[in-house]
Amino acid sequence: MIDPEKLPEHAAKVASVNAKYFKKLRTRKPKQLDNVMGKLHEEAFQEIDCLSCANCCKTTGPLFIPSDIKRISKRLKMRPTEFETQYLRVDEDGDKVLQQLPCPFLGADNYCGIYEHRPKACREFPHTNRAKFHQITQITAKNVAVCPAVYIMVERLKVALPQ
Q1: What is the domain count for the chain?
Q2: For residue 88, is it left (φ>0), alpha (ψ between -120 and 50) or beta?
Q3: Is residue 2 scored above 80 in pLDDT?
Q4: How far, in Å, CA of 149 to CA of 126, rounded?
Q5: Strand locations in the chain, DSSP E?
Q6: 138, 143, 130, 148: which is closest to 46 by C-alpha?
């Protein structure tokens, strides 16, 4: 596995190549791309153990939508406004995000303290197995620097679908 601490360095080395690649990738048939990415997603997560990494929880914060706030605050036996005051802030885009990182719900063992109730963004991360993958290549390009599985998927995608 790629060392998560060195991932930003590795990602920086391939960032311009990836940007050009993703731009050209938009010419591919979306269904073909979805099929290839689905396969690469499954393969990468057979190799990568999220609990040995948790870099996403340590370095990036999810967006919290109203249903997330309601569900998590109920789990924590707090009013939604209390939850927001204690854990969230509004970012420059007007989105509700964590006040600090690493995520306050991440345990020392890399387990999530609210796993069954976690935000939608966390449940779907890294978004590489979703339909219409061609619509999220910019997010994927950023996640190369966060998630070793995404780094692996993108490198393998460049081999599977050369430009």
Answers
A1: 2
A2: beta
A3: no
A4: 9
A5: 88-90, 96-98
A6: 148
Q: Is 121 helix (H, G, I), strand (E, B) or coil?
A: helix
Look up residue 132 and give its two tokens.
Answer: 């219409």
Distance CA(4)–CA(9), nearest Å, equals: 10
Rounded to a whole number of angstroms, the CA Rg of the chain reads: 17
pLDDT by residue (tens digit) across 13-45? Answer: 999 999 999 998 888 899 999 999 999 999 999
Residues 151, 120: Cα–Cα separation, whole Å = 22
Give the range of the structural domain holding residue 130, as residue numbers without chain letter.
7-57+126-160
Tokens linked to 52:
């040995």
Q: Do 26 and 52 fall into the same domain?
A: yes
Short-list 2, 16, 3, CA closest to 141? 16
Q: At 24, is the secondary structure helix, strand, or coil?
A: helix
Provide the whole-model pTM: 0.91
